[in-house]
DNA sequence: CTGAAAGCGCTTACAG
DNA sequence: CTGAAAGCGCTTACAG
C-alpha cells in the first residue's frame, strides 16, 4: 500500500542523477563507472525499486504489452496457442493480455479499442470477425497479427498458421482415396474466414460440393454431439464426417458410442487440430495436426522484426500433417 | 504505424482545452455544455482517438492491469479459473495479464517483479510458492490475492477458494463411511500450501496417517498414470485412491482400464476440482466440486472493495461439494 | 562518465 | 461551464 519508490528516490539515495539510474536500469551500465553502478544497485535494492513500465512506456511511446484476442478461451486448442505465445513473448520481454471476444463482433471491437488504449505493441487475433473497426485498425496501426485463421479477403496483415484450405483439401482427397461415402462436413462458424477455408478445401478435395452435407457448428463437444444425434437418429448411414476441430469430433464419437456404432466400421470420423488432449482422451482419433507450439516463436519473430514496407504480407505458414489413427 | 492522436490533437480540432477533452473521456461529461460535448465527440471520432491508458495510469498512479500468476496454464482447472477471473475483471474495466510460473520459484519471483513494474492493480496467485520476495510484496504492496490455494502460514492476504482442509477431511470421512481400505493419497507438490492442506484434511478424515500411502505428484494425467502403473503392477490390491485433482484421476483410471480393473469394484478413485471436462470425459468420476466460475466475481469484488484496515484477512471461502458418481 | 532539462499523454485542484 | 498549469515516472540528446 505504500507508494512505490521512484527513480528519483534511488537517485537521491545513491547521490547520482536520475539519468544515471535510468542508464543502469535500461542496460546501459557499460557507460557507468563501476563504483557508481554499485551504489545505484545498493540504493535500488534497499528501496525495493522496480522501474515503472508506465513511465517507461509513456516516454518511449511504446508499451511492452501484447493483446491476444480469442473467440473462446475455454477451447483447448486456443488455450494451447495462447500458452505458446505467452511463453515466447515473455522470452522477448513482453507481457500478454488475454481477452475473450465470445464470438461477438461488438465485443471484439470493444476489446480492440481497449488494446488501442493500452497502446499494445501488437494485437494477436485467433479468429477475427470482419468488422469495419478491424479493417480500420489494420490499416492505421499495422500492428495486428492473425493467428490460426487467416484474415478476410482484402485485409493485408501478417498471418501465422497453417494453410487451412490445403489442409481441408488433403482431408477431402484422403476421403476419396479411401473410397468414403456419405460425406458430412461439420464446419466452424462462417464468420471466421479460416473455417470456410477449411470447408472450401475439403469440398475441393472430394470434388463434388453437392454431395457434401454441410453443417455449421460451434467448436464444442456439445455441438458435435447434438449434430451427431440428429444425424444418426434421423437417417442412420455409414457417414464419413470431417469435423472442424477435435472437440466436435469427441462429441460426435460420444453419440456414436451411445448408439453402439463402431469406428471406423460403421462411421468414419476425422478431426482437426490434434490438441493436447488427444493423446490421453482420443488416441483413436484421426486428425489434422496443427503445430500449436510453433505459434509462439513465429509470432514473437514477427513482432520483433520491423515491418519491411507498406504492404505487410509477412505471413508464416506452418506445416500441417494428417495424423492417421483408427477413426478414419 | 502512424502515431496515435493525443488528447491535444482532439482539443485543438474541437477548439477546447485538453482539460475539457479529458473530462469528456473520464465520465465527467455532465459538467460540460452539450454543444461542447458534441464538438469533442466529433473531433475524437474523426481522429480515431482512444485515450492512452499509459498517460492515464501515470497520472493516476494506478494502472488497470491485474496480473494473474499460474503454475501451469495448460491445466484445465487453472484455465477455467483464469477465464472466470478475466471475464469478471473486464466487467469492472480491468485487463488481465496471465503468466506462467512453471512451478518454479525463481520464475515466480521474476514475474512478481514484472507485475510490480507494470504497477498492477492487483496480483492474483493461483498456487504461490513461498519465497522471501513473495512475503515482502505482500507486506509492502498489499495487493496480492491468493486463489484456490491458501497462502503459507504467516502470510496475511486475502484468499479466494474453498477450504481445502475441510474438503480433504470430507473425502477422508467418506472413505471411512464406505469402509474403503488400502488408502492412497496422490497429493500435489508440497511447495503449495493448498496441496498439503487437502492431504492433511484427508489424513485427519481417515484418522490414521500411518495407513495412508502418500505419493507426491504433479497435477497431470501423465503423473497419475505413472503412479498407477507402478502401484498396480508392484502390489495389486483394491486400492482406494484420493487424487489431488481430476487430471491425476484420469491418468489413474487409464492405467486401471489397461489392466481390466473395474471401478469401483476393483478400485476406488476419488478426484478433485470437477473440471469442465468431466461432464464429457469422465462422467463416472466421483470428485470434489470446486466452483470455478465463482472465483471471478469474488476476486473482482475483493479488488473493488478497498482494504479495511492494516490486517487484511478478507478471505472469501467458496463452498465445495462432494459429487458422488460411480468411481467411489 | 555524468547531469540538467525537456517532454511523452494524461488529470485535476484552482481560479474564473 | 471552462482553461492554464503542474506533475505523475521515466529516457535521452546535448553539453561538459
From TrEMBL, chains A, B:
Keywords: DNA-binding, Transcription, Transcription regulation
HTH lacI-type domain boundaries: 5-60
UniProt cross-references to InterPro entries, sorted A to Z: Cro/C1-type_HTH, HTH_LacI, LacI/GalR-like_sensor, Lambda_DNA-bd_dom_sf, Peripla_BP_I
Domain HTH cro/C1-type: 6-54
Xref: CDD domains: HTH_LacI (cd01392), PBP1_LacI_sugar_binding-like (cd06267)
Residue intervals passing through the bilayer: none
GO MF annotation: an example: transcription cis-regulatory region binding
Protein name: LacI family transcriptional regulator
Organism this protein belongs to: Rhizobium chutanense
Amino acid at each position: 500500500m505504500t507508494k512505490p519508490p521512484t527513480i528519483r528516490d534511488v537517485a537521491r539515495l545513491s547521490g547520482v542523477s536520475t539519468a544515471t539510474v535510468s542508464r543502469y536500469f535500461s542496460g546501459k551500465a557499460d557507460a557507468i563507472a563501476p563504483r557508481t553502478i554499485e551504489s545505484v544497485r545498493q540504493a535500488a535494492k534497499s528501496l525495493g525499486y522496480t522501474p515503472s513500465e508506465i513511465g517507461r512506456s509513456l516516454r518511449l511511446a511504446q508499451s511492452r504489452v501484447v493483446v491476444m484476442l480469442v473467440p473462446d478461451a475455454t477451447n483447448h486448442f486456443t488455450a494451447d496457442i495462447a500458452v505458446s505465445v505467452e511463453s515466447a513473448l515473455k522470452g522477448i520481454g513482453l507481457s500478454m493480455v488475454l481477452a475473450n471476444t465470445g464470438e461477438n463482433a461488438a465485443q471484439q471491437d470493444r476489446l480492440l479499442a481497449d488494446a488501442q488504449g493500452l497502446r499494445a505493441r501488437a494485437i494477436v487475433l485467433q479468429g477475427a470477425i470482419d468488422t469495419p473497426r478491424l479493417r480500420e485498425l489494420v490499416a492505421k496501426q499495422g500492428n495486428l497479427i492473425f493467428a490460426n485463421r487467416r484474415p478476410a479477403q482484402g485485409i493485408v496483415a501478417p498471418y501465422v498458421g497453417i494453410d487451412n484450405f490445403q489442409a481441408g483439401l488433403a482431408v477431402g482427397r484422403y476421403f476419396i482415396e479411401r473410397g468414403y461415402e456419405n460425406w458430412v462436413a461439420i464446419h466452424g462458424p462462417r464468420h471466421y474466414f479460416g473455417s470456410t477455408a477449411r470447408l472450401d478445401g475439403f469440398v475441393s478435395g472430394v470434388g463434388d460440393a453437392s454431395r457434401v452435407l454441410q453443417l455449421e457448428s460451434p467448436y464444442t463437444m456439445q455441438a458435435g454431439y447434438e449434430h451427431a444425434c440428429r444425424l444418426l437418429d434421423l437417417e442412420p448411414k455409414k457417414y464419413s464426417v470431417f469435423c472442424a476441430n477435435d472437440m466436435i469430433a469427441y462429441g460426435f464419437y460420444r453419440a456414436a458410442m451411445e448408439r453402439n456404432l463402431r469406428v471406423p466400421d460403421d462411421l468414419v470420423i476425422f478431426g482437426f487440430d490434434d490438441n493436447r488432449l488427444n493423446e490421453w482422451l482420443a488416441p483413436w482419433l484421426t486428425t489434422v495436426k496443427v503445430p500449436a507450439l510453433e505459434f509462439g516463436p513465429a509470432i514473437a519473430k514477427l513482432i520483433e522484426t520491423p515491418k519491411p514496407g507498406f504492404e505487410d504480407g509477412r505471413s508464416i505458414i506452418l506445416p500441417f500433417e494428417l495424423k492417421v489413427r483408427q477413426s478414419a
